[in-house]
Each structure stands twice: as C-alpha cells, then as structure tokens.
Amino acid sequence: MKYAICLVLLLPICAAAQAPTPAVPVKPWTGNFGGGFALTDGNSDTTNLNLTFLVTHDPKTRNVFKWNGLFLRGDKDDEDIIDRGATTLRDEYTITKRLFAYGQVGYLRDKFKDIMFLWAPNAGVGYKLVDRDTLVLSLDNGLGGVWERNHGRPTRGSGAYNAAERLTWKISNTATINESVSGLWKINEFSDALYIVTFGVTSSLTQHLELKFDFNELYKTRPVPTLKKSDLALITAVVVKF
Questions:
Q1: Pick from 233, 234, 232, 218: which is nearest to 109 by CA?
Q2: Mean pLDDT in residue range 138-158
Q3: Mean pLDDT across the chain, nearest whole number?
Q4: What is the CATH number of the domain that holds 197?
C-alpha cells in the first residue's frame, strides 16, 4: 500500500518533468537606440552630441536584415568641430553554416571631409571564420559602385571594391566587445580609398539599458586638399534596447 501511494504521488511529478518546455516565441524585430551629450562651460565652451541606432530583422530563417546609423555633431566656442552622418542597410542570406551572401547600401556625409554625400551600394559573399555563441569573426568581399559629391565639384561615379572584417565577442553575461575594419576602393582610381575602423565595448546596466563606449576612425586616402586624412571620435552613449 505504501509503495502504491508513493507511486500515485510521483506520477504527476514525473509527467511534469517529462513535459516539453514551451517554445520561446521568435522575436523577429530587435534593435537599440542610443545617445550621448556633453557640455562644458568656462575657458572653452564645447557641446557634443551623438545618436546611434540599430534595427535587426531576424525571423530565424536564412535572411537577416540590418539597418544602422550614426550621427555626430560638436562645436567648440561656437565653431563646428565635427558634423557627420552615416547609415547602412544590409541584407545577409545564409548559404551554409559559415558561408553567406549579402547586399548593402552605405551612405556617408561628413562636413570636415568635405563630403556632401557618398553612396556605396555593393553585393558579395562572406565567410564566418569563427561562429560560436560567444564569439563571431567574419570576412566579406563585394563589388558595386560609389558616387561622391564634394563642394565645388560635380558628382563622380565609379565601380567599387569593398572588403570588411567584423568581430563580436561576448566576454561575459553583461559585457560585449565589437570591432570592425572596412575598406572601400574606387576601381577607376584605386588610390582613392575610404577606411572605417570601429572598436567598442558595451556593458549591460539593466535588461533594456546598456552603456556603450565606441572608438571610431574615418580615414580617406585622398581627401580634399588642405584637409587631414584621418578623423577620430570617441563616443559614449546610453543605449535603450527593444
């Protein structure tokens, strides 16, 4: 009788333990929006503003769509010292576990590089050298075009070659390192190239809040005469995830 009673009591527990865990619903749209602001007053008056965003559509199929953007604006003693806007739309299609194809369109405007606009659509293939839950390292190469406009000069178009390396490393449950290096070369003038280097650390504050530190370098091999080739920016922002 004692064994029978124990068996009756254990049956519901065993059934609950063997019941399948409810599937977590797929959240196809994710993203974040961040901003930072700095103001000083005294011997020198400075104002700095940065805005960033990232939108991702990943329905857990072969296609992943990403849209990101960056806006930087700063002045010192009422004179502009940085004024830049950039955005990229990118669609990736998984061919195998590591191989993928992509198409993207990039846009850049930078007052202090005298770039009124630079459009760069291209498509190509990429390969994930490392693909783990905590570490992803990929390379991609593509061909396309580039159209650039500077003050006092007509719009110039050319074929273009694009290459990039990207790293995402989740070093803990709350901290992630992101790094990327990309290059864009004009085919009809290969010495005229644009390089973008980013290195950032993101730390979670709450479930929906993050603190982000980004180092960003924009390097143009043939800028407008009298302008420097390299521009550096250190970005600090509070990011809201959705």
A1: 218
A2: 95
A3: 88
A4: 2.40.160.40
pTM of the model: 0.85
How far, in Å, CA of 237 to CA of 211, rounded?
6
Q: How confident is the model at residue 227 (pLDDT cuts 50, 70, 90)?
A: confident
Which is nearest to 140 in space by CA: 177, 106, 166, 107? 166
In whole angstroms, give the CA distance from residue 238 to residue 211. 5
Asked whether the predicted pLDDT for residue 12 surpasses 70, the reply is no
**9 against 98, higher pLDDT:** 98
DSSP state of 234: E
**Domain span holding position 79:** 36-241
Task: Provide the 8-state DSSP code for 77.
Answer: T
What confidence score (pLDDT) does residue 131 get? 95
Gap between the Cα atoms of 40 and 60, Å rounded:
46
HSE, side-chain direction, 13 A CA sphere, residue 21: 3
Instruction: Tell me phi and psi for residue 21, to 5 degrees.
Output: -70, 130
Count Cα neighbours of 126 within 13 Å in the Cβ-side half-sphere. Answer: 26
Q: Please give the Cα distance from 125 to 104 (Å, whole number).
A: 11
Write out the two tokens for 40.
Answer: 């000083």
Asked if residue 13 is part of any domain, the answer here is no
Residue 214's nearest CA partner among 184, 177, 182 is 177
Q: Based on the structure, what is the number of domains in the chain?
A: 1
Mean pLDDT of 151-173: 95
